[in-house]
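Bench notes, afternoon.
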Amino acid sequence: MTERRYDIDWLRVIAVLAVFLLHTSQYFDTEGWILKNAERSFIVNVLRGALLDMWVMPLLFLLSGAASWYALKSRNAGQYLLDRGKRLLIPLYGVGLFILLPPQAYIDWSVNRGYSGTIWELFPRYLGNLSLNFRTPYSTLPYAGHLWFLQHLFIISLVMLPLLLFLRSEAGRSFVNKLAGICLRPGGVFLFLLPLIAVRIAFKHFMFAGPNSWADLFTYAVFFVIGYIIAVDPSYTDSIKKHGWIGLALGIAGFSGFVFLLNAGYNRDAEPFSLKYVLFHIAEIVSIFGWIVFIFSMAAKHLNFRSRVISYGNEAVLPFYIFHLTVAHLAAWLVLSWNLGIVPKFLIITVVSFILIIALYEGFVRHFNVMRFIFGMRPKKKRIE
């Protein structure tokens, strides 16, 4: 029996909480979004970018890849896909499509598109916005909100399954073990930068550039496969632990280069394969992967233990993610109109949203198997007296 990796459980919870903080801070930066505070600060942009935005979603896909290694230890391909469908698509096209995304669309269209009707009057228009043009990976949703992650993850799990199965074969395990030996050498773990940079540079301009585009999905797919490989052999974790502080240095250096190039006019929309284009994406990927190596190393060193907190959090993490942005938007819609500074508003939105999310989870999801199924959770086991 394989020993459970509690550090991965902790990382999953930390990453989802980081997404939550990323979103509750986004009301106050200087970039466009669904809801914005009247007073905004570029300092929030820098802090969000340096501390959260660069690494959090790639880390979630990497952790999902690691979870897939363990899932396929006890399931065949068909069982794996059925499990992915139950955990991802049922919440997405059930409670997500019909309950949690409509309020987000209503707030967006009321604030940014001049809509003045009720949410009930909006609903036919909301559903009519569904389009199968496949310009984006989430084109099968009338409004993606934050649940694009579930659809991205299902697509990646489906498309990458043949590769995952190959890596479990004798030839695949031989390759993975040889790569593990290379990664144990000084700097070896950073070989994973090569496919990440190659995919980013190759596709970012052409594959429908924009947030959460097909190009981003390809990049997330590489992180997913890296996570899967890392789970195969303990040597990868040993290497990550040895290179944690180097990862932090690369994360900071890459982010600094990313900001410098951005201010110098280098960006992802530069001419494809020009020096500006290549350097920008190298700095971005180096920063992302450097942060992930550092964070993963700290977790592997200090968080590989069981506790009641992680047992609770690991079970609650998916419903928390599914609830979080709709609840935060509703809280922000009220609080942003108050005559307060940025910090008090941020703290109120964050604390109130967190309490409401946990209350919704405890009151309507955790204790009821029907709701657990709808939110992608496994059934609650009956206690044997």
